[in-house]
Amino acid sequence: MILRQMVVDAVVLEGRSLRDVARTYGVSKSWVAELVTRYREGGEAALAARSRAHHGDPRAMSPETEERVVRLRKELTDLGTGAGAQSIQVHLLSRYGEAPSVSAIYRALQRRGFITPEPRKRPKASYVRFEAELPNECWQTDMTHWQLADATEVQIITFLDDYSRRVMACEVRVSAKGSDVRDIFQRACRDWGTPASVLSDNGAIYNARQRGGRSGFESDLLSAGVLYKHSAPPDLRQGRALAPDVEGTARQTSRRLARGDATRARRGRRLLHPRAPAPITRPDDAERRLRITRQSPGPHPHQSTAPSTAQGRR
User: Fold this and answer.
1) Confidence check: pLDDT of 146 > 90
2) Strands, sheet with 167-173, edge to edge from the N-terminal-most edge strand
3) What is the pTM of this model?
4) Per DSSP, what are the bridge partners of residue 228?
5) What pLDDT is attached to residue 4?
């Protein structure tokens, strides 16, 4: 700012030529002329440095596209299905033939207040990534608590194929027991074949690790030749990388189902009746209730295809 003022003073107050001032201060003649013009039009305030950034970013998301993203976010949330940036991108491609990147959609949702950034509580090194390479290579299972619109407490048991993300079985119980898990798993095996492995948490309905024994579900898996994998107990998670945790995909699937049920319950079309729970015994029925339609499916994050298509690759 001092140099700018000295250059202008030399021209305006001392009456020196632009060429002479430029030579004296080691700057270009055009820059001196620009400063003098700005000073005569706006005074000393006009000599402040100006941003050289573009007035607009040609690659920025258009207002129309951002409105589509927001509208889809609200629509998918109301249906109870996945409403993240990746799901929104899939639906945009299906409806309009084009879509911005996942990161651009995420930033748009963040700008509009749909996403609140939260710092990670665990370092990335503590996570163990796993991904099945074939259908029926690994099933994930989890039990999720949920409260219906009339305050009835229910428990949702879900079996999910890790490769295709297809719902192999999903049933609702008022009080889930170990025998329910065994029955649901056996029916799913009759419909879809026996998986090579099963992954669960350390819930009492799945294993008896904390009781120092073996549950009926573990015995069924052992007799069927199915490898049983489970997450590490909390007391073993300190100071080392964690074992695979199923607090993700299977639980999210159950909660999406429950959210969709709660939405329909508010509209007077409850699917899970509190007095006589109707078990969801078929994967197609679970997918229908989760609003995973064949026209606009939510793809596996790493398979880029519908669950039913990926499951048929076996």
Assistant:
1) no
2) 167-173, 153-161, 139-147, 197-200, 227-230
3) 0.52
4) 198
5) 87
Pairing relation of β-strands 139-147 and 153-161? antiparallel
Please classify residue 271 by burial: count the beta carbons closer than 10 Å to its beta carbon, then call 0-12 exposed, 13-18 middle and 19+ buried: middle
Torsion, CA 106, CA 111, CA 116, CA 118, rounded to 10: 70
Please state, in angstroms and rounded to a whole number, the distance separating the CA atoms of residues 188 and 170.
9
Q: Please list, residue by residue across 10-43, b when 16 or more beta carbons sit within 10 angstroms of its beta carbon and e when fewer do.
A: bbeeeebebeebbeeeeeeeeebeebbebbeeee
Angle between helices 178-192 and 216-223 (to 10 degrees): 30
Matching residue, tokens 């929104």: 88
The whole-angstrom separation of Cα 45 and Cα 39 is 8
**Which residues touch 208 (CB under 8 Å, ≥6 apart)?**
214, 215, 218
Name the nearest CA neighbour of 167 among 155, 153, 157: 157
Mean pLDDT within 175-196: 93
Is residue 263 predicted with pLDDT exceeding 70?
Answer: no
Residue type, 295: Q
CA 292 to chain centre: 16
The token duo for 301 is 């994050």
pLDDT tens digits, one per residue of 91-142: 999 999 999 999 999 999 999 999 887 766 666 666 666 678 888 999 999 9
Q: Count Cβ neighbours within 10 Å for each residue of 125-164 and write b for 16 or more, e otherwise.
A: eeeeeeebeebbbbbbbbbbebebbeeeebbbbbbbbbbb
Average pLDDT, the chain: 77
Question: In whole angstroms, what is the distance from residue 203 CA to residue 188 CA?
Answer: 20
Task: Measure the CA–CA gap between 32 and 43, rounded to whole angstroms.
Answer: 15
Token pair 């519908």 is found at 306
CA pair distance 160, 254, nearest whole angstrom:
10
What 3-state DSSP class applies to 239? coil
